[in-house]
Amino acid sequence: MGNVNGREEDFNGTLSSASSTSSEVSDSMSAPDGVVENPSPVELMGHSPPASPRTTQSPLMFTPQAPVVPLQRPDEMQVPSPSLMQTNSGYEDMFSEIGIPTMITWSYDGKEVAVEGSWDNWKTRMPLQRSGKDFTIMKVLPSGVYQFRFIVDGQWRYAPDLPWARDDAANTYNILDLQDSVPEDLGSISSFEPPKSPDSSYNNLHLSSEDYAKEPPLVPPFMQATFLNVPSANMEFQPLVSRPQHVVLNHLYMQKGKSSPSVVALGSTHRFVAKYVTVVMYKSLQR
Amino acid sequence: MDVDNETFRRMVRVTDGTLNEVLPRISDTDVQISRQRISAFLSMHTAYELLPESGKVVALDVDLPVKQAFHILHEQGIYMAPLWDICKGQFVGVLSALDFVLILRELGNRGSNLTEEELETHTISAWKEGKPYLNRQINGHGTAFSRHLIHAGPYDNLKDIAMKVLQKEVSTIPIIHSSSEDGSSPQLLHLASLSGILKCICRYFRHCSSSLPILQLPICAIPVGTWVPKIGESNRRPLAVLRPSSSLASALNLLVQAQASSIPIVDDNDSLLDIYCRSDIMALAKDRAYTHINLDEMTVQQALQLGQDVCSPYEPRSQRCQMCLRSDSLHKVIERLANPGVRRIVIVEAGSKRLEGIVSLSDIFKFFLS
């Protein structure tokens, strides 16, 4: 059963560009937690269906490198070793400094457009490139909320088509809320309708002994790709667990308790609006 | 940093002319403005934003034996879980590290022969029902044991959630969504804590810290946290501490009586060595250590060793005991507190690491939201 987990690590690894997983990872991963395994020993091919194109009105022009931390062996975990009087916590450095490319556009008239913002405390002014009628600039910033303003032909302006706010001194500025990941386009997922069953002859004859002699059909390999084996996110030391594949949603996984026969673990991943929640419930079988 | 003359003179008077430190005076308007802005921000954002894009939550059946629950939480590396009652079809409560602290204390009182038996068959629901009796023993006045789960919905705003956490004196609130009117078929979404809310605040104000003027002040100038009382300040509540040789029983007693979530461990010079948290109780599940230890004989140092041996990459040693200086700014302190897993910052003196105070998440929020 162990190699089932190993394959799963591969799957998670392929979602990110960098992956240094090895099959040894499975040993250290499966031991500590109440693992929910799929009982059928299916070999995962190790490749995933292509991620759906992000056809959203996102500010990103191209899919950025999704910063997924590859699952590593415990002793390889590169936590920067801090001195006791460290000035910044290593954890914060690891994740929040990953730059996310974003495009800022000014689509109103002007001859010379520049932008300045709170990302460097309003110190520098960067000119925008003209492309047709629009002026654009690409910035790479860590995830966060920033305020910025345009300087159009020497005057401070804000773009009314972008989120904006006004401060106490009646200065208006634009707001950029840069998320870690592109949120799902709800329209494309909530309107999903499963295709109808193909026309064919369906009957309900009882299974014969011939049928029982055959091997049961294999579980589709993508069912392996659940987050149930990932240690719980309560401590959230792996906050960048990537989005689950839609195929694993709304399926119930079950594992009989390893330590005791009277406990069973049930797991399932659901979508809530644009976020995904995996719930693992430990149930008592005693009555 | 500008020091107005009045403050300067005041300091000089108090310290007999020798100026050890100049505390920038915290102006009331600054505090007002900052509080207003934080309050406005929290009212505009909902619990939905606390949810990670892909999160995982563990829940337990309320009929599970407590011992199983202990092991499950230890295996999963978490220290609290909501409880699901199948008959009612509802989440009815939460099992947390405090429950285990109380259970172990109870068993310690009655003698270890009963340990295995008790935990084998004692279910979580039986434990919860017996709890009000214990509560009365602890509080003195019988605070009514709330049989209702303290929870919130995904569209409740962050301010309400933070207030709930502070008022009900819990550390985590499950976020539950029920699609139907009568609350049936609830869907567990997330376990919200002040840490997540502080992270939202930090993220929003990180790059416009001028809108929160109090962020630049040093932590010692702000009335938050519990501080070691200086000589002459006799009316302050003393800060509970432990020595490495203190027994585990005394540590658990302190945790319960002081109603604290952690106690610092200091040596004879009052230098900070480590910290014992309520959640460290979960380490006792390793190799079923709780069945064969004597709470009075085991020292806190040994108890922490147990936790360290568990190779846990998910809680690096450094995260356990976050420290800072009294001169560090409030901004720095809250950035540290916003890290998941960090619930308090210990304030120490530079160099000697002498314990000066503790600032926890709830201290900060009480200051922000009062």
Number of helices of chain B: 13
Shape of chain B: flat
Largest interface: A-B, 65 and 62 residues
CATH architecture of the largest domain in chain B: Roll
CATH class of the domain at 100-178 in chain A: Mainly Beta
Provide the residue-averaged pLDDT of chain A: 67
- The parts of chain B where pLDDT drops under 50 for at least 5 residues are 1-20, 140-145
Structural class by sheet pairing and helices of chain A: alpha+beta
The CATH architecture designation of the domain at 100-178 in chain A is: Sandwich
Q: What's the number of extended β-strand segments of chain B?
A: 11
Largest sheet of chain A: 6 strands, antiparallel
Provide the succession of SSEs of chain B: HHEHEEHHHHEEHEHEEHHEHEEH
| Residues in helix, % of chain B | 25-40%
**CATH H-level superfamily of the domain at 100-178 in chain A:** Immunoglobulins
> What amount of the residues of chain B lies in strands?
15-25%
Using only CA atoms, what is the Rg of chain B?
Answer: 22 Å
Spans of chain A of 5+ residues with little confidence (pLDDT < 50)? 1-95, 233-240
Number of helices of chain A: 5
Instruction: Assess the beta-strand content of chain A as a share of residues.
Output: 25-35%
**CATH superfamily placement of the largest domain in chain B:** CBS-domain
* CATH fold-level label of the domain at 100-178 in chain A: Immunoglobulin-like
